[in-house]
Amino acid sequence: MNTLAQHIQNIRIIDGHEHLIPQKDRQKMNADFFDLLHYVRSDLITAGLDSAFFERDNNMSDEEKAEIFLKYWNKTKNTTYAQMLRWAVEDLYGMNDWTKEGIVALSERVRKASQDPKLYERVLKEKAGIDLAFTLIFTTKVDFELFRPVMFMDHTFKLRTLQDIKSIEKLTGTIVHEFEDYLQVLDKLIERYVKEGMAATKIGAAYWRTLHVEKPTRQDAAKVFNQLKMFHLGESLSQDEAKPLQDYLIHRIIQRSIDFKMPIQIHTGHQEPSVSSNGNIITNSKVTDLVPLLLEYEEAIFVLLHGGYPYYNEFLSIVKNFANVYADLTWCYILSPTATKQLLSQMIEMVPQNKIIGFGGDYSQVEGTYAHAKLARKVLTEVLTEKVESGELTEQEACEFANNILRNNLIELYKLELKRAPSIRGNISVSTS
Protein backbone atom coordinates (compact mmCIF):
# COMPACT_ATOMS: atom_id res chain seq x y z
CA MET A 1 0.00 0.00 0.00
CA ASN A 2 1.46 3.40 -0.96
CA THR A 3 2.10 6.16 1.56
CA LEU A 4 -1.07 8.12 0.73
CA ALA A 5 -3.36 5.10 0.90
CA GLN A 6 -1.79 3.95 4.17
CA HIS A 7 -2.08 7.43 5.65
CA ILE A 8 -5.78 7.71 4.81
CA GLN A 9 -6.37 4.23 6.22
CA ASN A 10 -4.77 5.30 9.50
CA ILE A 11 -6.69 8.55 10.03
CA ARG A 12 -8.91 8.45 13.11
CA ILE A 13 -12.16 9.76 11.69
CA ILE A 14 -14.54 12.18 13.32
CA ASP A 15 -17.93 11.23 11.88
CA GLY A 16 -20.06 14.29 11.15
CA HIS A 17 -23.52 12.75 10.95
CA GLU A 18 -25.21 9.55 12.15
CA HIS A 19 -28.56 8.27 13.40
CA LEU A 20 -27.13 5.53 15.60
CA ILE A 21 -29.61 4.47 18.25
CA PRO A 22 -28.38 4.15 21.86
CA GLN A 23 -26.80 0.77 22.44
CA LYS A 24 -29.24 -0.04 25.25
CA ASP A 25 -32.09 0.43 22.75
CA ARG A 26 -30.41 -1.93 20.33
CA GLN A 27 -30.07 -4.50 23.11
CA LYS A 28 -33.72 -4.05 24.02
CA MET A 29 -34.93 -4.51 20.44
CA ASN A 30 -32.60 -7.53 20.09
CA ALA A 31 -31.67 -6.36 16.61
CA ASP A 32 -31.16 -9.05 13.97
CA PHE A 33 -29.95 -9.12 10.38
CA PHE A 34 -33.17 -7.59 9.04
CA ASP A 35 -32.68 -4.57 11.31
CA LEU A 36 -29.41 -3.83 9.52
CA LEU A 37 -31.01 -3.24 6.13
CA HIS A 38 -31.64 0.51 6.62
CA TYR A 39 -30.78 2.12 3.27
CA VAL A 40 -30.97 -1.03 1.19
CA ARG A 41 -34.59 -1.34 2.28
CA SER A 42 -35.29 1.65 0.00
CA ASP A 43 -33.85 -0.24 -2.97
CA LEU A 44 -35.73 -3.38 -1.99
CA ILE A 45 -39.00 -1.42 -1.86
CA THR A 46 -38.41 0.32 -5.19
CA ALA A 47 -37.62 -3.13 -6.62
CA GLY A 48 -41.12 -4.21 -5.59
CA LEU A 49 -40.93 -5.49 -2.00
CA ASP A 50 -43.97 -4.59 0.13
CA SER A 51 -42.89 -2.16 2.86
CA ALA A 52 -44.94 -4.20 5.38
CA PHE A 53 -42.05 -6.67 5.28
CA PHE A 54 -40.08 -4.31 7.53
CA GLU A 55 -42.66 -4.08 10.29
CA ARG A 56 -41.22 -5.80 13.36
CA ASP A 57 -44.59 -7.25 14.34
CA ASN A 58 -45.27 -8.96 11.00
CA ASN A 59 -45.13 -12.39 12.72
CA MET A 60 -42.88 -13.91 10.07
CA SER A 61 -40.19 -16.39 11.01
CA ASP A 62 -36.56 -15.81 10.08
CA GLU A 63 -36.92 -18.51 7.44
CA GLU A 64 -39.90 -16.76 5.85
CA LYS A 65 -38.16 -13.40 5.96
CA ALA A 66 -34.98 -14.82 4.46
CA GLU A 67 -36.86 -16.39 1.56
CA ILE A 68 -38.65 -13.14 0.69
CA PHE A 69 -35.50 -11.08 1.20
CA LEU A 70 -33.47 -13.22 -1.19
CA LYS A 71 -36.06 -12.82 -3.95
CA TYR A 72 -35.60 -9.04 -3.89
CA TRP A 73 -31.95 -9.08 -2.91
CA ASN A 74 -31.19 -10.63 -6.27
CA LYS A 75 -32.89 -7.63 -7.89
CA THR A 76 -31.01 -5.02 -5.87
CA LYS A 77 -27.59 -6.44 -5.01
CA ASN A 78 -25.98 -4.28 -7.70
CA THR A 79 -26.56 -1.03 -5.78
CA THR A 80 -24.07 0.58 -3.44
CA TYR A 81 -26.59 0.37 -0.61
CA ALA A 82 -26.56 -3.39 -1.11
CA GLN A 83 -22.79 -3.47 -1.39
CA MET A 84 -22.52 -1.76 1.99
CA LEU A 85 -24.72 -4.43 3.57
CA ARG A 86 -22.57 -7.12 2.00
CA TRP A 87 -19.32 -5.53 3.22
CA ALA A 88 -20.73 -5.08 6.72
CA VAL A 89 -21.89 -8.64 7.29
CA GLU A 90 -19.02 -10.30 5.46
CA ASP A 91 -16.35 -8.32 7.30
CA LEU A 92 -17.95 -8.18 10.74
CA TYR A 93 -19.84 -11.51 10.87
CA GLY A 94 -17.95 -13.71 8.42
CA MET A 95 -21.00 -14.04 6.17
CA ASN A 96 -20.25 -16.22 3.13
CA ASP A 97 -23.50 -18.07 2.53
CA TRP A 98 -26.16 -15.98 0.78
CA THR A 99 -28.81 -18.69 1.01
CA LYS A 100 -31.90 -18.90 3.18
CA GLU A 101 -30.04 -21.04 5.69
CA GLY A 102 -27.05 -18.71 5.66
CA ILE A 103 -29.17 -15.65 6.35
CA VAL A 104 -31.01 -17.36 9.21
CA ALA A 105 -27.67 -18.27 10.79
CA LEU A 106 -26.38 -14.72 10.22
CA SER A 107 -29.44 -13.23 11.87
CA GLU A 108 -28.73 -15.22 15.00
CA ARG A 109 -25.11 -14.00 15.04
CA VAL A 110 -26.35 -10.42 14.77
CA ARG A 111 -28.75 -10.96 17.68
CA LYS A 112 -25.89 -12.22 19.79
CA ALA A 113 -23.77 -9.21 18.87
CA SER A 114 -26.64 -6.88 19.76
CA GLN A 115 -26.35 -8.04 23.36
CA ASP A 116 -22.62 -7.28 23.48
CA PRO A 117 -22.14 -4.11 25.60
CA LYS A 118 -18.89 -3.42 23.73
CA LEU A 119 -20.44 -3.67 20.23
CA TYR A 120 -20.42 0.06 19.45
CA GLU A 121 -16.91 0.60 20.75
CA ARG A 122 -15.62 -2.44 18.88
CA VAL A 123 -17.23 -1.60 15.54
CA LEU A 124 -16.80 2.18 15.58
CA LYS A 125 -13.40 2.58 17.21
CA GLU A 126 -11.61 -0.67 16.45
CA LYS A 127 -13.06 -1.67 13.09
CA ALA A 128 -14.10 1.63 11.47
CA GLY A 129 -11.40 3.83 13.00
CA ILE A 130 -13.96 6.40 14.21
CA ASP A 131 -13.11 8.23 17.42
CA LEU A 132 -16.31 10.27 17.72
CA ALA A 133 -19.61 10.58 15.85
CA PHE A 134 -22.33 13.22 15.81
CA THR A 135 -25.68 11.49 16.07
CA LEU A 136 -29.27 12.68 15.58
CA ILE A 137 -31.70 10.53 17.54
CA PHE A 138 -34.11 13.09 19.05
CA THR A 139 -32.30 13.12 22.40
CA THR A 140 -29.21 14.59 24.03
CA LYS A 141 -28.83 11.48 26.19
CA VAL A 142 -25.98 9.78 24.37
CA ASP A 143 -22.72 8.09 25.33
CA PHE A 144 -20.35 11.07 25.26
CA GLU A 145 -17.36 8.74 25.01
CA LEU A 146 -18.52 7.89 21.47
CA PHE A 147 -21.02 10.56 20.44
CA ARG A 148 -22.11 14.18 20.46
CA PRO A 149 -25.82 14.92 20.01
CA VAL A 150 -27.29 17.07 17.26
CA MET A 151 -30.93 17.96 17.74
CA PHE A 152 -33.62 18.07 15.08
CA MET A 153 -35.60 21.28 15.43
CA ASP A 154 -38.36 20.49 12.95
CA HIS A 155 -40.79 19.51 15.69
CA THR A 156 -40.64 23.09 17.00
CA PHE A 157 -41.65 24.74 13.73
CA LYS A 158 -43.62 22.05 11.89
CA LEU A 159 -46.87 23.47 13.24
CA ARG A 160 -50.12 22.80 11.39
CA THR A 161 -52.48 21.65 14.16
CA LEU A 162 -53.23 22.47 17.77
CA GLN A 163 -51.79 19.08 18.70
CA ASP A 164 -48.41 20.18 17.31
CA ILE A 165 -48.38 23.01 19.84
CA LYS A 166 -49.52 20.71 22.64
CA SER A 167 -46.66 18.35 21.86
CA ILE A 168 -44.19 21.15 22.57
CA GLU A 169 -46.09 22.00 25.77
CA LYS A 170 -45.75 18.39 26.88
CA LEU A 171 -42.07 18.28 25.97
CA THR A 172 -41.26 21.44 27.92
CA GLY A 173 -43.82 21.21 30.72
CA THR A 174 -45.08 24.70 29.88
CA ILE A 175 -48.58 25.86 28.95
CA VAL A 176 -48.61 28.18 25.94
CA HIS A 177 -51.40 30.71 25.39
CA GLU A 178 -49.83 33.48 23.30
CA PHE A 179 -47.36 33.47 20.44
CA GLU A 180 -44.88 35.30 22.64
CA ASP A 181 -45.17 32.45 25.15
CA TYR A 182 -44.28 29.99 22.41
CA LEU A 183 -41.19 31.97 21.38
CA GLN A 184 -39.96 31.96 24.98
CA VAL A 185 -40.56 28.22 25.22
CA LEU A 186 -38.58 27.68 22.01
CA ASP A 187 -35.69 29.78 23.33
CA LYS A 188 -35.62 27.87 26.62
CA LEU A 189 -35.75 24.52 24.82
CA ILE A 190 -32.71 25.40 22.71
CA GLU A 191 -30.91 26.63 25.81
CA ARG A 192 -31.71 23.35 27.56
CA TYR A 193 -30.36 21.32 24.65
CA VAL A 194 -27.15 23.37 24.71
CA LYS A 195 -26.67 22.74 28.43
CA GLU A 196 -27.24 19.03 27.81
CA GLY A 197 -24.42 18.92 25.25
CA MET A 198 -26.03 19.65 21.88
CA ALA A 199 -23.32 20.27 19.28
CA ALA A 200 -25.50 21.68 16.48
CA THR A 201 -29.09 22.33 15.51
CA LYS A 202 -30.58 20.46 12.56
CA ILE A 203 -33.21 21.59 10.06
CA GLY A 204 -34.61 18.69 8.02
CA ALA A 205 -37.52 20.60 6.50
CA ALA A 206 -36.82 19.50 2.92
CA TYR A 207 -38.35 16.14 3.79
CA TRP A 208 -41.78 17.74 4.19
CA ARG A 209 -41.69 21.25 2.66
CA THR A 210 -39.59 23.54 0.50
CA LEU A 211 -36.28 24.94 1.75
CA HIS A 212 -37.32 28.41 0.62
CA VAL A 213 -37.81 30.58 3.72
CA GLU A 214 -39.42 33.98 3.42
CA LYS A 215 -39.31 36.88 5.90
CA PRO A 216 -42.75 37.12 7.56
CA THR A 217 -43.40 39.65 10.30
CA ARG A 218 -44.13 38.65 13.87
CA GLN A 219 -47.70 39.77 13.30
CA ASP A 220 -47.99 37.44 10.27
CA ALA A 221 -46.71 34.53 12.33
CA ALA A 222 -48.85 35.34 15.37
CA LYS A 223 -51.97 35.40 13.21
CA VAL A 224 -51.32 31.84 12.03
CA PHE A 225 -50.44 30.74 15.55
CA ASN A 226 -53.73 32.12 16.89
CA GLN A 227 -55.61 30.21 14.18
CA LEU A 228 -54.02 26.99 15.43
CA LYS A 229 -54.98 27.80 19.01
CA MET A 230 -58.64 27.80 17.93
CA PHE A 231 -58.44 24.34 16.32
CA HIS A 232 -60.06 22.27 19.07
CA LEU A 233 -61.77 19.79 16.74
CA GLY A 234 -58.70 18.38 15.05
CA GLU A 235 -58.60 20.91 12.21
CA SER A 236 -55.42 21.43 10.25
CA LEU A 237 -53.91 24.22 8.19
CA SER A 238 -52.53 23.54 4.73
CA GLN A 239 -48.77 23.82 4.30
CA ASP A 240 -49.19 27.13 2.43
CA GLU A 241 -51.35 28.54 5.23
CA ALA A 242 -48.88 27.46 7.92
CA LYS A 243 -45.75 28.63 6.10
CA PRO A 244 -45.56 32.19 7.55
CA LEU A 245 -45.47 30.75 11.07
CA GLN A 246 -42.96 28.06 10.15
CA ASP A 247 -40.71 30.53 8.36
CA TYR A 248 -40.71 32.93 11.30
CA LEU A 249 -39.74 30.11 13.65
CA ILE A 250 -36.93 28.96 11.36
CA HIS A 251 -35.50 32.48 11.55
CA ARG A 252 -35.80 32.30 15.34
CA ILE A 253 -33.93 28.98 15.50
CA ILE A 254 -31.12 30.36 13.36
CA GLN A 255 -30.90 33.47 15.55
CA ARG A 256 -30.70 31.44 18.75
CA SER A 257 -28.12 29.15 17.16
CA ILE A 258 -26.03 32.22 16.44
CA ASP A 259 -26.37 33.34 20.06
CA PHE A 260 -24.92 30.01 21.21
CA LYS A 261 -22.31 29.91 18.40
CA MET A 262 -23.98 26.68 17.34
CA PRO A 263 -23.59 25.35 13.75
CA ILE A 264 -26.85 24.77 11.87
CA GLN A 265 -27.02 21.56 9.84
CA ILE A 266 -29.50 21.63 6.94
CA HIS A 267 -30.63 18.69 4.82
CA THR A 268 -30.16 19.35 1.11
CA GLY A 269 -30.61 17.13 -1.90
CA HIS A 270 -31.56 13.46 -1.99
CA GLN A 271 -34.30 12.11 0.27
CA GLU A 272 -34.58 8.76 2.00
CA PRO A 273 -38.01 7.36 0.99
CA SER A 274 -38.66 5.55 4.26
CA VAL A 275 -38.75 8.83 6.20
CA SER A 276 -39.88 11.30 3.56
CA SER A 277 -43.34 12.77 4.09
CA ASN A 278 -43.46 14.98 1.01
CA GLY A 279 -43.90 12.27 -1.59
CA ASN A 280 -40.19 12.37 -2.45
CA ILE A 281 -40.53 15.75 -4.13
CA ILE A 282 -36.81 16.22 -4.67
CA THR A 283 -37.20 19.85 -5.83
CA ASN A 284 -38.07 20.77 -2.24
CA SER A 285 -34.41 20.07 -1.45
CA LYS A 286 -32.84 22.49 -3.92
CA VAL A 287 -29.88 24.10 -2.20
CA THR A 288 -30.32 27.38 -4.09
CA ASP A 289 -33.54 28.01 -2.15
CA LEU A 290 -31.35 28.63 0.90
CA VAL A 291 -29.52 31.60 -0.59
CA PRO A 292 -31.70 34.30 1.07
CA LEU A 293 -31.00 32.78 4.52
CA LEU A 294 -27.28 32.45 3.81
CA LEU A 295 -27.14 36.09 2.75
CA GLU A 296 -29.07 37.39 5.74
CA TYR A 297 -27.20 35.49 8.45
CA GLU A 298 -23.56 36.13 7.64
CA GLU A 299 -22.67 35.50 11.29
CA ALA A 300 -24.30 32.04 11.29
CA ILE A 301 -22.46 28.78 10.57
CA PHE A 302 -24.38 26.66 8.06
CA VAL A 303 -23.42 23.04 7.39
CA LEU A 304 -25.14 21.87 4.21
CA LEU A 305 -25.53 18.11 4.19
CA HIS A 306 -25.26 15.44 1.50
CA GLY A 307 -23.44 17.48 -1.14
CA GLY A 308 -26.80 18.79 -2.35
CA TYR A 309 -27.01 15.74 -4.63
CA PRO A 310 -28.32 15.80 -7.35
CA TYR A 311 -27.89 19.59 -7.30
CA TYR A 312 -24.21 19.31 -6.49
CA ASN A 313 -22.92 21.89 -8.98
CA GLU A 314 -25.11 24.54 -7.36
CA PHE A 315 -23.98 23.20 -3.98
CA LEU A 316 -20.33 23.67 -4.94
CA SER A 317 -20.92 27.21 -6.15
CA ILE A 318 -22.66 28.17 -2.90
CA VAL A 319 -20.02 26.63 -0.63
CA LYS A 320 -17.28 28.29 -2.65
CA ASN A 321 -18.85 31.75 -2.39
CA PHE A 322 -20.19 31.87 1.18
CA ALA A 323 -17.68 32.11 4.02
CA ASN A 324 -20.36 30.98 6.50
CA VAL A 325 -21.20 27.74 4.66
CA TYR A 326 -19.55 24.32 5.06
CA ALA A 327 -19.87 21.37 2.70
CA ASP A 328 -20.73 18.06 4.36
CA LEU A 329 -20.32 14.80 2.39
CA THR A 330 -22.51 12.79 4.75
CA TRP A 331 -24.39 10.02 2.90
CA CYS A 332 -22.74 10.90 -0.45
CA TYR A 333 -20.43 7.91 -0.91
CA ILE A 334 -23.18 5.31 -0.61
CA LEU A 335 -25.58 7.27 -2.83
CA SER A 336 -23.07 6.95 -5.64
CA PRO A 337 -19.31 6.49 -5.31
CA THR A 338 -18.95 7.62 -8.92
CA ALA A 339 -20.86 10.87 -8.40
CA THR A 340 -19.04 11.51 -5.12
CA LYS A 341 -15.65 11.05 -6.79
CA GLN A 342 -16.66 13.69 -9.31
CA LEU A 343 -18.05 15.95 -6.58
CA LEU A 344 -14.96 15.57 -4.40
CA SER A 345 -12.61 16.12 -7.32
CA GLN A 346 -14.40 19.36 -8.22
CA MET A 347 -14.55 20.34 -4.56
CA ILE A 348 -10.76 20.11 -4.29
CA GLU A 349 -10.54 22.47 -7.24
CA MET A 350 -13.15 24.93 -5.99
CA VAL A 351 -13.57 24.96 -2.20
CA PRO A 352 -11.09 25.91 0.54
CA GLN A 353 -10.34 22.67 2.32
CA ASN A 354 -11.16 24.01 5.79
CA LYS A 355 -14.82 24.18 4.70
CA ILE A 356 -15.19 20.48 3.84
CA ILE A 357 -16.59 17.82 6.20
CA GLY A 358 -15.47 14.58 4.62
CA PHE A 359 -17.54 11.83 6.19
CA GLY A 360 -20.81 11.01 7.89
CA GLY A 361 -22.16 7.49 7.85
CA ASP A 362 -25.82 8.49 8.24
CA TYR A 363 -26.81 5.00 9.42
CA SER A 364 -29.07 3.78 12.22
CA GLN A 365 -26.87 0.73 12.95
CA VAL A 366 -23.09 0.66 13.44
CA GLU A 367 -22.50 -2.07 10.87
CA GLY A 368 -23.61 0.32 8.12
CA THR A 369 -21.34 3.04 9.47
CA TYR A 370 -18.39 0.63 9.35
CA ALA A 371 -18.99 -0.23 5.69
CA HIS A 372 -19.59 3.40 4.73
CA ALA A 373 -16.32 4.49 6.37
CA LYS A 374 -14.51 1.77 4.46
CA LEU A 375 -15.97 3.05 1.19
CA ALA A 376 -15.23 6.70 2.04
CA ARG A 377 -11.56 5.93 2.64
CA LYS A 378 -11.43 4.05 -0.68
CA VAL A 379 -13.05 6.87 -2.67
CA LEU A 380 -10.94 9.55 -1.01
CA THR A 381 -7.78 7.56 -1.72
CA GLU A 382 -8.71 7.18 -5.39
CA VAL A 383 -9.51 10.88 -5.84
CA LEU A 384 -6.39 12.12 -4.07
CA THR A 385 -4.19 9.61 -5.89
CA GLU A 386 -5.45 11.02 -9.20
CA LYS A 387 -4.68 14.55 -8.01
CA VAL A 388 -1.14 13.55 -7.01
CA GLU A 389 -0.49 11.66 -10.24
CA SER A 390 -1.70 14.64 -12.30
CA GLY A 391 0.58 16.98 -10.38
CA GLU A 392 -2.26 19.03 -8.86
CA LEU A 393 -1.24 18.06 -5.32
CA THR A 394 1.92 16.73 -3.75
CA GLU A 395 1.59 13.57 -1.70
CA GLN A 396 2.08 15.60 1.47
CA GLU A 397 -0.63 18.06 0.45
CA ALA A 398 -2.99 15.16 -0.29
CA CYS A 399 -2.34 13.65 3.14
CA GLU A 400 -2.96 17.02 4.81
CA PHE A 401 -6.20 17.41 2.86
CA ALA A 402 -7.40 14.00 4.08
CA ASN A 403 -6.43 14.90 7.65
CA ASN A 404 -8.47 18.07 7.45
CA ILE A 405 -11.69 16.77 5.93
CA LEU A 406 -11.83 13.57 7.99
CA ARG A 407 -10.81 15.04 11.35
CA ASN A 408 -9.25 18.47 11.80
CA ASN A 409 -12.07 20.52 10.28
CA LEU A 410 -14.61 18.94 12.62
CA ILE A 411 -12.43 19.66 15.64
CA GLU A 412 -12.35 23.32 14.69
CA LEU A 413 -15.97 23.64 13.55
CA TYR A 414 -17.50 21.91 16.57
CA LYS A 415 -14.84 23.09 19.06
CA LEU A 416 -13.85 19.58 20.13
CA GLU A 417 -11.14 18.97 22.68
CA LEU A 418 -9.47 16.25 20.63
CA LYS A 419 -6.04 15.87 19.05
CA ARG A 420 -5.57 16.85 15.44
CA ALA A 421 -4.51 14.22 12.92
CA PRO A 422 -0.74 13.70 12.60
CA SER A 423 0.77 15.47 9.61
CA ILE A 424 3.08 13.67 7.20
CA ARG A 425 6.44 14.70 5.81
CA GLY A 426 7.91 12.35 3.28
CA ASN A 427 7.34 8.88 4.73
CA ILE A 428 7.41 10.06 8.34
CA SER A 429 4.30 10.95 10.32
CA VAL A 430 4.77 13.96 12.61
CA SER A 431 2.25 14.72 15.36
CA THR A 432 0.85 18.27 15.35
CA SER A 433 -1.26 17.84 18.46
UniProtKB/TrEMBL annotation:
Signal peptide: none annotated. It comes from the Bacteria. Coiled coil: none annotated. It holds the Pfam family Amidohydro_2. Residues 209-383 form the Amidohydrolase-related domain. InterPro entries: Amidohydro-rel, Metal_Hydrolase. PANTHER family: AMIDOHYDROLASE 2 FAMILY PROTEIN, NODULIN 6. This is Amidohydrolase family protein. It comes from Halalkalibacter kiskunsagensis.
